[in-house]
Design a protein that fits this description.
single chain; alpha/beta; 4-stranded antiparallel sheet
């Protein structure tokens, strides 16, 4: 592959705990996303997917680690330099209702990033907003209305148009279809697929829906308790996940299970404030060994383009 467009190294994000101290939400996380690809990020609720997306955009400041974008360390940027760089980094939010200002007209919402991030004139930004509303299938006339006059799927299209306004290089789509009716989800996913292809975008697509990820992603990354535990090309991943957690995740989806046996995991996601000593998955893993309970595995390559964080992982066609 080419040089990564964005790279996280040793990324750590901490939030205040219920008592004294900090809770690690991202744990020394490493990740590369290559230019022009869509990386699908999957995992259980609470594992840190959305936090990772916001950290990559510097919406959340990391406690440690490095985020490189086009060779620049985002964690060191401040003030004007950070604002200018953020024009290349945009987000499509999960909630199409809460992410749009209900008091503003749609044309102003879409145009705002151009005015603030690219210093465009109001007239030029308004014209671009109209073009973007055409592009996402709403039409220029939609710009005269307010978000409350639109359906959920239409509002998500407005959010996509807003994210594209500053002509970004990298977009984080955080569960962009989970709040939509099933009948509308495919339309929004197809729109994102077309935009990535036609505009040369690089995208991190966060989702708990493996069926959607299989449709849109070029590669898949699996997250568990604040760490990436497997990355693989889409077809390789769905043909046979290498990590025990990834296998269980895939087996839980009837339409993707094929001949695989359903794997039911015991217990819940461990408390991030009190993680297991060894492998973070050791308390639920059906293949756990003594070594797993005491030694934390590193993310290592087991085949070209495939990395796994597991002592026991090997290439499999199960």
């Amino acid at each position: 592959m080419s040089v990564p467009l964005i790279r996280a190294e040793g990324l750590r994000v901490e939030f205040p705990g219920r008592s004294a101290g900090k809770v690690q939400v991202l744990r020394d996380l490493d990740l590369e996303i290559f230019e022009g690809e869509t990386l699908g990020l999957v995992g259980e609720s609470g594992c840190g997917k959305s936090t990772l997306g916001r950290a990559l955009l510097r919406v959340i400041a990391p406690a440690a680690g490095r985020i490189e974008f086009l060779g620049r360390d985002l964690t060191r940027l401040r003030g004007r330099a950070l604002r200018e760089t953020r024009a290349d980094l945009q987000m499509v939010f999960q909630d199409p209702f809460g992410s749009l200002n209900p008091r503003r007209k749609v044309a102003d919402i879409v145009a705002e990033p151009l005015v603030r991030a690219r210093s465009a004139t109001r007239a030029a930004a308004a014209d671009t907003a109209g073009e973007l509303l055409d592009l996402v299938g709403l039409g220029r006339e939609a710009g005269k209305r307010r978000p409350g006059e639109f359906s959920g799927g239409q509002r998500q299209r407005i959010g996509i148009a807003r994210a594209l306004a500053s002509s970004p290089r990298f977009v984080v789509a955080d569960e962009p279809v989970s709040a939509l009716d099933v009948s509308i989800q495919a339309q929004v996913v197809n729109l994102l697929t077309d935009l990535v292809r036609d505009r040369g975008l690089t995208m991190l697509f966060i989702s708990h829906d493996l069926g959607v990820v299989r449709h849109i992603a070029d590669r898949v990354a699996v997250m568990y308790l604040g760490q990436i535990i497997e990355t693989a090309a889409r077809d390789d991943f769905f043909a046979g996940p290498a990590h025990p957690y990834s296998r269980a995740l895939l087996s839980s989806v009837p339409s993707l299970r094929a001949s695989r046996k359903r794997i039911v995991l015991d217990g819940d996601l461990p408390d991030p404030a009190n993680p297991p000593r060894g492998c973070l998955f050791s308390t639920r893993c059906p293949l756990v060994e003594d070594r797993c309970r005491t030694e934390r595995p590193e993310l290592h390559e087991i085949a070209p383009g495939r990395q796994v964080r597991c002592h026991l992982a090997k290439e499999t066609d199960d």
